[in-house]
Each structure stands twice: as structure tokens, then as C-alpha cells.
Amino acid sequence: MKEGLNNLCKKYHLGILMESPEMITGGLMHRMYRVTTTSGQYAIKVLNPDIMKRPKALGNMIFSEIVAHKLIDEIPLVAAREFEGKHVLEDSGYYYMIFDWLEGRSVFGQEITPAHCEQIGQILGRIHRADIRVDTMEQEKENREPIDWEGLLEYARSLVKKAQPQPENECASILEKYLEALQKWDQGVVIGWQQVSRCQVISHRDLDPKNVMWQGEGPDTKVYIIDWEAAGPVNPYQELVEVLNYWTTDVDGGYDREKFDALMSAYRESMPLDGVDWDVILSCSMDGMLGWLAYNVKRALGLEGSDTEDRQAGLQQMQGTIQELKQYDERIKQLKERMEENAGRNSL
Questions:
Q1: Residues 6+ apart with CB under 8 A from 293
Q2: Partner of 179 at 20 to 30 A CA spacing, among 83, 155, 238, 258?
Q3: Which long-range CB contacts under 8 A does 164-169 form with residues at least 24 apart?
Q4: Which residues of the chain have pLDDT under 70?
Q5: Which of 269, 275, 260 is nearest to 124 (CA)?
Q6: What is the set of domains in the chain, with CATH numbers?
């Protein structure tokens, strides 16, 4: 990879490598490298070759950067640099995205404060209020097809019968244990999808803590939104619920009231909350987690990705996502009460 990155830097006049590229943490599907050259430091994302073989993959990556650049005057964000009119670059069979290096870090769990949540609420509200339009955008379908959880389970069982090694055994065990719950959660999404698909904005769609970088401490803290590859159309209130789950939960699996109220109050500065059918929104807000789970089941079973590392990563993500779905299902009632309470306050 060093040679490929060196050639890329030469091709786009970024200078000569001064040291070996450093692969940095973050990025569940692609590889990100910190690259130091004679002209500066860059973050270069090497896109997963298996993912880029998909028919819509390149178009989706290009679309995501169009979205980021349209929002660059609305919120603080990091977008890919443009070279020869392109943000996604191809060289020797690989696809790359080049960013200016940003010093900062993500915050997680108990590091997250109400002040962090306030800034996230403001940013999310501004994205939704901007309601940007992209000519190449495809609207979400009015109908959401159910995920074939039973078919995935049967495939996992077939591999186990062939005496395949881990992670197939663990994958089949998880699907067997949670099959009924997965089908119930998925059906809730399918039923409510037509209603949520009528109201859409273009947004980030993956605004969890790993995709937010913070610089500094206290009142001088700066925030930047990164990793726009999931950007696309979404119901704004569905995304709001997902973001609340990312940022405001506590160690006991409930919601931290101070963080929750800080995020909601900031969001209401830009977006109204009256008249929202929270039952439908809360059911459909499982869609992102269910889609991510299905993708990682396929990774664990070798239907996505190309190597043992991909399979193990898929199993690890599958285990974590199942736990997130369980916790979310357990606190939906509490979340609905909080949402209705906040919707009753002054809003636009």
C-alpha cells in the first residue's frame, strides 16, 4: 500500500512521502492512512475493493461528497479534496479519497457531556433545516422489503453442517436465538416505512460518536463531522431518534436526562416537533441497525468481503448490533415519553 499511496501523492502533486503511511483507527469498511509528505499531512481513505465492485458503490461515494460540499457553509465538516473535478480518485485499480489531516479525537460513553450533545443537536437541526437537494438523488422507495432473516439462518446452518469453522457456528447460534425478535422488529419497519418515506431530507445518516471529531476543551471546543459515505435521504425525525440513541444513553441503558434535553433543545432551534407520529418513527428507527446487522451477518458468513479478517469483523459487529437492538427495544417506552414531553415545549 505504501507504493500505491506514494504514486497517488505524486500524481496529485501532494509531495514526496517523508515516512511510511500510518494506518489509523476508525473506518469499519475502508482503510484510512495518515500520510506525511514534503507539502503537509493528509488523511487518505483507501476504499474497500470488494465494496467498490458493487454496481452502485462508486456513485454512492461520489454522491456522499456532493452532499458534504453542499453543507459546507451550514455546519463544520470535513470533506474530501477535489482533484481534476473529482472527489473520488482512481489509480491502478484502487479508489481513494484525500482529506486534509485534522488533529482531534472522538468522544464516547461517559466522556460525552451535555455540551457535546447541545452541539450535535444544533448541527443535526441545521442539516435538516437546510433541506438540500441533489439532482442525482434517488428517493427512498415507498415500500421497504423485509430482510430474509430465516434465509440467512438456513444458510448459516448449511455451513455448520459442512463442518465450517467459526464464525459460522456463532452466527447460526445468534440468529436462532433472536430470529423471532428480528422478524418482529423488521416487520415494524416494513409497516411504518410508507409513512416515514413521505417526509425526507438529505442528511449524514451515521452521526454516531466515531464520525465526529472534537478539537480543544471547554468553551473553545471545535467540532467537525466526518465520514459522509452513508449520506442520503432519511426521515428527519427517524434520524433524530438514532442520534439520541448514539449520544444520550447512560450506563444503565436508559437516557441521561441532561444530555437528552440539551440535544433536543438545540435541535428544536431549527426543527419543529409537533404533530410527529412517534410510534411509527420509533419502530422505523430500528432500520439502520437492522440493515447494518444484516450486512454483518453476510460478512460473517462469507457472503460479503473476501477474507477471514472480514468474517471475524462481521461477527464482532453482529454481536454488538444485536445488543444495541435489544437495549433500544427495552427503552422505547421511555424514549416515547421523553419525545412527547419535548414535543410539547415551545418549538418553531
A1: 182, 318, 321, 322, 325
A2: 238
A3: 166/315, 167/300, 167/311, 167/312, 167/314, 167/315, 168/300, 168/301
A4: 25-28, 136-141, 163-166, 306, 344-348
A5: 269
A6: 2-100 (3.30.200.20), 109-343 (3.90.1200)
